[in-house]
Design brief:
By secondary structure, the chain is an all-beta fold. The protein has strands at about 5-15, 15-25, 25-30, 45-50, 55-60, 65, 75-85, 95-100, 110-120, 120-130, 135, 145-150, 160-170, 175-185. The strands form three sheets. Strands 1, 2, 3, 6, 7, 8, 9 and 10 form an eight-stranded antiparallel beta sheet that branches. A hairpin with a 2-residue loop joins strand 4 (about 45-50) and strand 5 (about 55-60).
């Protein structure tokens, strides 16, 4: 099992390009915990962290007209939220998926934020994002994240390879850990 606490991917190697971000470093916020029945995240402020920049994404009624970094060429919406049961966590844990779509051109960006209530405030357990990112939540509390990998001849719509990260919950340490990562697909 890999024990990295944070991993940032922005790779240009042998003509390939993949840009995604995964952090499994617990990060407390100053946002007070809410009662489980009132947690909806439709009106919530997320601090975004990623390759080379950070920002603030403020959702109002589940959407905003920017990407969290100040660009107004995007529409960002709350796509999904699911409650997770994680051993060792006393309060509710939520997986929140956020989707940003570029209005005037091609491109979209997906984000996943997993939060728990610790010491009276929301604590991020995972923040991940990437173009074409897909999330599969596992019954044991783990998750599988997939991202596109583009080669020089690939159109923006169609990456010819895929990166997969498998994260598992370590109940003793109360953190997610990257168990395995792989790239599959065409390698010209």
């Amino acid at each position: 099992m890999t024990s990295e606490l944070a991993v940032i991917f922005l790779v240009v190697v042998s003509g390939t390009f993949d840009a995604d971000y995964v952090s499994v470093q617990p990060w407390p916020s100053k946002v007070a915990c809410l009662q489980p029945q009132s947690v909806g995240f439709e009106n919530h402020q997320f601090i975004l962290r990623g390759p080379g920049r950070s920002g603030v994404l403020t959702l109002r009624n589940g959407k905003t007209e920017d990407d969290g970094y100040g660009s107004t060429d995007w529409v960002t919406t709350l796509e999904d939220r699911q409650r997770l049961e994680l051993a060792g966590e006393n309060g509710p844990v939520w997986a929140v998926e956020i989707f940003s779509n570029h209005i005037g051109g091609s491109g979209s960006y997906s984000r996943l934020v997993v939060v728990s209530c610790r010491n009276g405030s929301l604590t991020e357990l995972v923040q991940a994002g990437g173009e074409g990112m897909r999330v599969k939540l596992l019954e044991d509390g783990g998750m599988i994240l997939t991202f596109g990998v583009w080669y020089p001849q690939d159109a923006h719509c169609c990456p010819s390879a895929q990166k997969t990260l498998i994260l598992h919950w370590n109940a003793r340490r109360r953190i997610f850990q990257i168990e395995r990562q792989s790239i599959t697909g065409r390698n010209p």
